[in-house]
Specification:
single chain, about 325 residues, alpha/beta, FAD/NAD(P)-binding domain, 2 domains, 5-stranded parallel β-sheet, 17 strands, about 25% helix, binds NADP nicotinamide-adenine-dinucleotide phosphate
Amino acid sequence: MTSKKSWIHSFNTVQENNYDIIIVGGGPAGLTAGLYASRSKMRTLLLERMGCGGQNAITDWIENYPGFPEGINGFELASKFEEQARKFGLEIKTEGVISIESTSQDISGKAVRTENGVYAATAVVIAAGASFKNLNVPGEVELRGKGVSYCATCDAPFFKEKDVAVVGGGNSAVQEAVYITRFAKSVTLIHRRDRLRATAILQEKAKNNPKIRFKLESVVKSIQGGEQVESITTENVKTGAKEDLNVQGVFIFIGHVPNTEFLRDTVKKDDSGYILTDENMQTSLSGVFACGDARKKLLRQVVTACGEGAAAAFAAQEYVEEKRGTAYK
Ligand code: NAP
């Protein structure tokens, strides 16, 4: 195994691995940061562990991103973001980031380590997003891909004329429940409270959809099946009454956990792992900025992710200019 001293030495000597700004994550926040940084003539690298687009890319229809009055498919929007960022020179590599370290106060003082190597940067923008939260009930792991799903756009077409359960009461659960009705015979939306968290317009759509029924104040206790999901057991949170529901699919949309574990203690986070920043997206570590769903904030939307990505890139650019001694003051 390479010692820390030797990999720091090796990245310092490899000029082609030196960037002004490195962005971690290729969702809307990261791609917008990439667009702004590249357009400002910063030598910018975006590192994304899978394909670009983030959760946005697996959303069927986005109707609250300005400029698309009819709405737009999430994958299409993500592809447009990527195309626009690349047009201005953003370099994108498919590599998962393992750690970020501040190695010195020099111009190349940040080391970004991936599974393939080490890159140096003056500033880093973390836009690592968030991942789906698990329900953690018996049967969930065993039946994943056999009826248990976290992505309606990917899997809903497999449930033509089937009975399906959707778990959660937020925007994702309600929006995706409506989408799944294009295929499924029935959708039972199961939520632990007596009312939904989702915005009024989405609730209205779901309530007006004859294929959707609501099972409120209920939680899923277990998922049963063999080769495929066959049923779930729910429990009423008030009465404790249990019920078995015959369904062939269970879509789980109960929120997210931020993808910030790789950072360990590099930057300050809240108790749930969301990165703390000031209003300029500056984290607790000078020269490291954060934006998008991995950041602690009130509203998680494509439009807020993009706004933060632009702000983070601008702040990172100012940091680079200061390090170079070329800041316009
Ligand atoms: P969310 O807003 O955090 O909602 C998660 C839902 O799951 C909540 O209703 C929560 O219940 C429930 N839940 C959490 N843990 C649970 C558990 N262990 N068992 C059962 N239920 C559980 O997450 P989201 O819906 O995925 O949305 C994430 C973000 O993306 C939000 O900011 C949302 O506004 C945004 N988004 C926006 C749109 C849109 O604008 N069209 C679409 C999708 C997502 P409680 O309510 O009791 O906490």
